[in-house]
Design goal:
Blueprint: E1 12-19, E2 25-33, E3 38-46, E4 49-54, E5 59-61, E6 64-66, E7 70-72, E8 75-80, E9 83-88, E10 92-97, E11 102-107, E12 115-116, H1 141-147, E13 149-150, H2 168-175
Antiparallel strand pairs: 1-2, 1-12, 1-13, 2-3, 3-4, 4-5, 5-6, 7-8, 8-9, 9-10, 10-11
């Protein structure tokens, strides 16, 4: 059988979590398949900056390599032992354990019912965690994953019908979530 994480396409990004009300943060996983391996990074968008975490501990801010620790407005980046932590005073924290290849996304309770993405809706109701950006329930896991793809050049591993594009109407619905 195919594991869930094997379903992600090459050269594609997926929205893990996003503040759909105020736009304070987005957390994205990026995949780039090369001839010998797949590069996976985590992007955190916060305070009008993009911070990208690589598995080797490299940190890129707005396409430029940076050293830690650093502060960018209300966002703090630091390295502790084998982890990289990005946190924001608005209540988002992404902690990546590099050796384990695991990232934990934590959001403040003030985001209750205001987020959505592959990590769910953060409203304590598991029945809508597989909701697509258009607020419709996903038919299956493949549609759910495809629904949270970012970018037009994603190549799906599985054959899944085209996803709904994010229109102004859908964005407005997400904003009222």
């Amino acid at each position: 059988t195919q594991s869930t994480w094997d379903r992600f396409g090459a050269d594609c990004s997926y929205l893990l979590a996003n503040d759909f009300i105020d736009g304070n943060f987005s957390v994205i996983v990026n995949y780039a398949r090369g001839p010998r391996s797949t590069t996976k990074t985590i992007s955190v968008l916060s305070n009008d900056a993009e911070f990208e975490i690589y598995a080797d501990g490299t940190i890129i801010k707005n396409h430029r390599h940076i050293e830690l620790p650093m502060q960018h407005r209300n966002t703090t980046l630091r390295r502790t032992d084998n982890s990289i932590i990005i946190s924001n005073v608005n209540g988002i924290e992404v902690k990546c354990l590099l050796q384990q290849d695991i990232c934990q996304v934590s959001v403040s309770g003030c985001y209750f019912g205001r987020t959505a993405g592959l990590l769910g809706t953060f409203n304590n109701y598991k029945g809508d965690d597989f909701t697509l950006p258009n607020h419709e329930p996903a038919a299956d896991i493949d549609h759910f994953i495809k629904g949270w793809e970012l970018g037009k050049k994603c190549r799906s591993v599985n054959k899944v019908p085209e996803r709904c594009e994010m229109t102004t109407e859908i964005h407005d619905k997400c904003a009222s979530y």
